[in-house]
Amino acid sequence: MAATIGRICGVQLLKSSNRAVLQQINNFSTTRTWSKTQKRFLATMGMLAGGAGALVYALEQSVEASGTEVHAPQLPWSHSGLISSLDHASIRRGYEVYKQVCAACHSMRYIAYRNLVGVSHTEAEAKAEAEEIQVRDGPNEAGDYFMRPGKLSDYFPNPYANEEAARAANNGAFPPDLSYITLARKGGEDYIFALLTGYVDAPAGIVLREGQHYNPYFPGGAISMAQALYNEVLEYEDGTPASASQLAKDVSTFLKWCSEPHWDERKQMFIKAVGMFTLLGVLAYYIKRHKWSVLKSRKIVFNPKKSDK
Asked: Is the CB of residue 270 less than 8 Å from the CB of residue 278?
């Protein structure tokens, strides 16, 4: 008898609690129901956002397709991997190419000789490189300016006194600064390599002005910079064969490092972060399993004899 009454009461209690839960759900759903105006507004905004994104993508593709330049192919650089570092021997050779070929026209005003220390040169070698230049300094105690040998804190010298002098020496074209050129050009080092090795004769119908040359990788094709890299145009200190492609590869790697001098440190931090978060993830999983093992392994048994009492 007691068990029967308990079952009836239990059913009634369950029914009442179910009604309360259903009522709360209905109230929540009615309060959260959006009006037709709100739904239309959200649908309109979604359509406009999607249309704008599709339009921007279509315009970008049309601009790229209508361009006259040839897009640089992706090359298998040794630093292209997820955790790959730059080739420091190539950086040193690339500095030689810049110093002997590129520095005659292009500046690197954001790179100092101290940046070479520990990357491509020792401290003594970097000091020797800096002392080869003359830097205007002063005023001294007499109020006069003077020339002194360069120091590690000095930046790479500018080949021209100002922009006007640079344009006058290059038929009106201004040679860009190369400090961040791989970040400033689409394609990065792929573009630099393709540009340096892509000089060809102008096709029929292309008229070049005096002092211009044809390079399909340059926007418009007509470029004021003449081809600078040829086979054996210089000799490497380490004896590497100085072919035109090797020169272009090395100077492209050097310019990549100039644009991102913390490349190797960032890769090292990535490796450390992956290892640290992997260890923390395993530890968190173990703690989660340990804390929830008591709840997940418990066993609930219904004893009808005790309920009848």
From this structure: no
